[in-house]
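@channel sequence for tomorrow's demo:
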Amino acid sequence: MDKLKVMPIFGTRPEAIKMAPVVRALKNNQNINTVVTVTAQHREMLDQVLDLFNIKPDYDLDIMKDNQTLSEITSRVLKKLEAVFIKERPDLILVHGDTSTTFVASLAAYYQQIRIGHVEAGLRTGDKYSPYPEEMNRHLTGVLSDLHFAPTETARKNLLKENISADKITVTGNTVIDALLDTVKDNYQFENQLLSGLDFDNKKIILLTAHRRENLGKPLEEIFKAVRDLVLGDDNIEVVYPVHLNPKVKDVAEKLLEDIDRVHLIEPVDYEPFANLMNKSYMIMTDSGGIQEEAPSLGKPVLVLRDKTERPEAVDAGTVMKVGTDYRVIYDVARDLISNKDLYNEMAAKNNPYGDGKAAGRIVEFIKEKLT
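structure tokens (generated this afternoon):
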């Protein structure tokens, strides 16, 4: 019997992190021929993860350009993938989540009548502009997909509401937990001099990430002002903020936070040190999606700096609190979490709703069940 040809496709650092365990599980199966394709929608940040997980792409479309627009990403991925699909004719492509690479790869596969598997399927906010463009990217990918790997039961129910057939959906857990548990080490030593010098045992180190499009402008200013006042009001708090490269983020961060003692603005951090920084931090404030899934596995409370989240399971489980972007709410909730040890311990002890680190294996088994 001919081997099943499966083509994982991804283009950004978050996708690469979450697809790395899937690539490994596929390659470990002797009945599957795995053809890894990257678009390099992000270049340097993607390459860091490829090196960390020892992934060598079979195809690298290398599409990234400076100041690229969504339209430019779409047109380049669509055209370059067409040639790859015509040559390889995979039995199934695998895409992840909600990036432009994810949606456009699915569209290109549909044009070639190639089956599509969607990892991390079924996340929804119900607002097509929040997050933008991710909400529509994942929704449209779901419309095109043949197999749906939902990370949670809530995601599965979202797909059923959209009339996706139940036999095309399986709940796997989130592959980011697979990647995280492989990466975090209790004895990890930072190469970064600033991080290696932080007193994680005696200081309350807050890890901050903030970069989403919908938070640019006034929301970002509100976030940074709340962080500034938290630090100024408590000598025991320090903040580490890996600043996003977007000038609309960097300029505001430098204006409001650069001169504040105990706020450390650092360059973006590779995944391995970042995962271990999460593990060592006291708590996390973020507008990221993936961190809402990762941090609870490490027992770290999370304040979500967004008005809407496509990950309500974490809110329901009590591992994260959604605080939005209003200065007063952010400051008050963070201050309460820092000063109220019982509240902190209650959040830290909650079970992570996103899985047990075995999602990639379940994905491969479902592919075999449906396609062989």
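heads up for whoever presents: The chain is about 45% helix and 15% strand.
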